[in-house]
Design a protein that fits this description.
This protein is about 95% helix and about 0% strand. It has about 150 residues and is mainly alpha-helical. Helix 1 packs antiparallel against helix 2.
Length: about 150
């Protein structure tokens, strides 16, 4: 009977040790599970932020390209209209023999200045577009999609 009480004590102690070890493992697994849930939440938030950033970059790029195209078209249209309107008085003055020579010089100067001004607007527009695209981190819409 003494032997079986000792055996019973040993089995009880072993059972208690196994239970404690099992409880420690379960607690550790629970902690890891909670950490995984937290990590997944952070990853999901980071993905959502990245998706929002890409969407905003896309919108900025589209707006920049539309603005650049609009400025180019407007500048080209104004340049054409300007030259057309300027051609009227220059044409009239060139038809008068006494003002022809001076008018040709003035018209040449006018056209040169006009070309420089409109060309400068075009250069500024293109350069600004490149700077904005560089700030976005892309050189075109296609490159943004590939990211």
């Amino acid at each position: 009977m003494l032997l079986s009480s000792g055996l019973l004590l040993i089995l009880s102690m072993a059972s208690l040790f196994i239970s404690a070890a099992t409880l420690a493992v379960v607690w550790q697994e629970y902690s890891l599970s909670q950490q995984c849930k937290s990590d997944l939440l952070h990853v999901r938030c980071a993905q959502q932020e990245r998706a929002l950033l890409i969407k905003q970059q896309w919108q900025l790029l589209e707006a920049q390209e539309k603005l650049e195209d609009t400025i180019d078209l407007t500048t080209s249209t104004v340049r054409t209209i300007h030259k057309g309107i300027a051609a009227i008085p220059f044409g009239i003055l060139e038809a008068i023999p006494i003002t022809r020579h001076t008018t040709l010089v003035v018209r040449g100067t006018h056209d040169l200045i006009s070309d420089v001004v409109y060309g400068s607007i075009n250069i500024v527009t293109k350069t600004t577009g490149k700077v904005i695209r560089k700030g976005i981190g892309t050189s075109s819409r296609n490159k943004l999609i590939d990211q």
